[in-house]
Amino acid sequence: MSISYYRPIYFRAALFALAAGMSGPFLTLYAIYLGADPLELGLLQAAINVIPNVFQLPFGRLVDRFGKRKLILYLGSIVYFSIFIPILFVSVPKQYVLLLSIQSIANAMITPAYLSLVGEMTTIENRASTMAKLNLLNGVGNLISTTFTSFFVYMYFGNSKIGYQFIFLSSLFFGILAIVSTHFIHEPKVKVVRETLNPIKDLLKILKGNRTFSTFLLLTLMYGFFMSLMWPLAGLTLAKVHNAGVLEFGLVQFFSMIGYIFAQNMFRRIFDQVGRVPMLVLARFGLIIFPLSYAFSPNMTYIYLASFLGSIFSALTDTAVLAYLFDTTPSGQRGFYTSLYNLMAGVSYFAGSIIGGGLYSLATPIFGIGASLQYVYLISIFGRGAFAFMHQKLVETRKVQTTLTKALLKELHIK
What we know:
- It is a single chain.
- The chain has helices at 3-23, 27-33, 38-49, 51-66, 69-82, 84-87, 93-121, 127-156, 161-181, 203-209, 211-228, 231-241, 246-267, 271-274, 276-286, 289-296, 300-327, 334-367, 369-389, 404-411.
- The protein is mainly alpha-helical.
């Protein structure tokens, strides 16, 4: 396909990233500003990361059976960005979590429609490289919007409610532009699958019939649990241990996006050369940098450095996971399969987030804040490392042209 064929979806990805980058990094900080406790922060992470995955399954079925991906993308985006209006007026954490939960349901409409659209627009030959470009645009958009928001709010509003209202209004503005840009995306004509895939009755049939997919699903479930243990504690560590505010949260996101963009730009050509499995093992093992740094960093400088390095592996993970997921799912049913994948991932994220927050709450009266945080982070580190290595058991879906080491050295211009 020509570049012009993909240009509209690239444009939409950039605008959506600008909208998300305006508010995404500060959602947890605003909850802390409203007075959220560790349990409410765990519920917040569940609302952001779990609810979309749970509701993607019925919406994924709708995408496959109805076939109107752009229409579903429209509707979900309208609801998603409209929620920022009532968020402007919340005053207690529970109201905030409820509104973000509704927004997450709308996100559950967007994700399977968008991923199904991308999956049908690409082929196995260009899928990973196209996803890398989309992720690169996502990183650039997030970087620009987060950097602008952080410094603008810090300089003119400080840590005030007006500053947060500016953040949410900015997201709404760019969200409207992203909605409009959806009109120009070329939706391929795909045969609508009339077979009924029931998420309860047919789950075992699906898992038995596609062993490659089911193995990947199981590893994701276990890895996701240990990965998400630290999620409710990351923002708490920044705010309570390092006294971070809007500027510091923004800088964490800034360095994260720099690392993300660097990885997508530097390594996007190797995804279709080295195979999916080696990249998955490397990327998911590298994510231990996050809990390691949050557990032992003496100041924010180390957090910034870890954010840069860790986001390199985040970028590799995002592209490798989606490429492997699309490779192992049948055309015409990707909405359902990706939703099933995200549902199972969401279950593990929910369990990890709640248990992570609960472990911290139980340990704090005994060990204190610092030691309790380290306790949970260490569990996350060992779990991530163990299940990352187990990804070597996955079936390779892409013909390997060279080794990962050779490809990396070539991209880094090291002989």
